[in-house]
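Final report, closing paragraph on structural work. Over the funding period we assembled a curated collection of sequence-structure pairs, and we close with a single example.
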Amino acid sequence: MKKKIIFILSFISTSLFANPFANPSEPSGKLILNKAHPTQKLFAVTLQAVNGHNVTNRDQAVWLKPGEYELTFSSTVDKRVTKGQLSKNSSKNNNLTNTVTIVVEADKSYYVAFDASDRDRHKWKPVVYKTK
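Its predicted structure, as stored:
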């Protein structure tokens, strides 16, 4: 009985969160996540969640079905490049913005990075800095 309840709950949670990921051969948009440009203060990101649902960490490239998504990322900001904008304490618990909303179109590539170029670290956020 316990196994049956667990199965039903896992089926319900899976069906409520339709899989946003696609194969490269399907109509999809490609997110490129690992192209850092430290001199421009753009740092690589790792995809953590899609529409509030945790996903297996993805840090290279992913293909998403066309649609609108709220994506949550993590990133490591190089303190040497940001020249003291992060103190030792703030780098451990920095509460930086880590979500971005994106409309994905088929056959497009989106380069995503964490933008730490603003002098105010509270304005740092993930951005789509290039679309092809």
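The longest helix spans residues 2-16. Confidence is low (pLDDT under 50) at residues 5-16, 89-93. We thank the funder for supporting this effort.
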